[in-house]
Amino acid sequence: MPLWNIYHTPNAFSVEDKQTLAVRISDLYKQIPRFYVGIIFQEVAANSFYIGGMPAENFIRISIDHIARSLPTPQGKAWWLAQCNDALAPLVRDRGYDWEFHIDETPFDIWSIQGLRPPPPDSEAERRWRSENKPTPYTLGPDA
């Protein structure tokens, strides 16, 4: 499950911008069920957002939690950072905002969704979750 927390100064995004960015982010995660992807937009008042001790008037900070998959190699990490930057570019970079993001990776085995342990990656159960776009009970099969 990736969870993106997007902290931004007031009026950085319209409702339509948020929808567009949420779709662009969700589209990054083709290999997992779409309902795993969460995006939270958190507007921070100008007098409550500081970078280096100074008020941040043109800044977007993104914190990303990854659980469903990890990035095990330096090449995979570099590729993923480029994908994220490309997804953000039209609504962040191209509008002149300063921004940064980081990714935390939580172990897969300490996660549940609606009381269910997620099925193993690329298993038949996960493929069903992806096609149905919802979690449902499953049993481990031979490909789990």
What does this structure look like?
With 144 residues, the protein is of the alpha/beta class. The protein has one domain (3-111): Macrophage Migration Inhibitory Factor (2-Layer Sandwich), CATH 3.30.429.10. Helix content is 26%, strand content 22%. It is built from three helices and six strands; from the N terminus they run βαββββαβα. The strands form two sheets. Strands 2-1-5-6 form a four-stranded mixed sheet, with helices on one face. The chain has a two-stranded antiparallel sheet with strand order 3-4. The longest helix has 15 residues, at 74-88. It is elongated and about 55 Å long. The mean pLDDT is 93.
Task: List strands and helices in order, with pairings.
Elements: E1 3-8, H1 15-27, E2 38-43, E3 50-51, E4 54-55, E5 59-66, H2 74-88, E6 98-105, H3 124-132
Parallel strand pairs: 1-2, 5-6
Antiparallel strand pairs: 1-5, 3-4
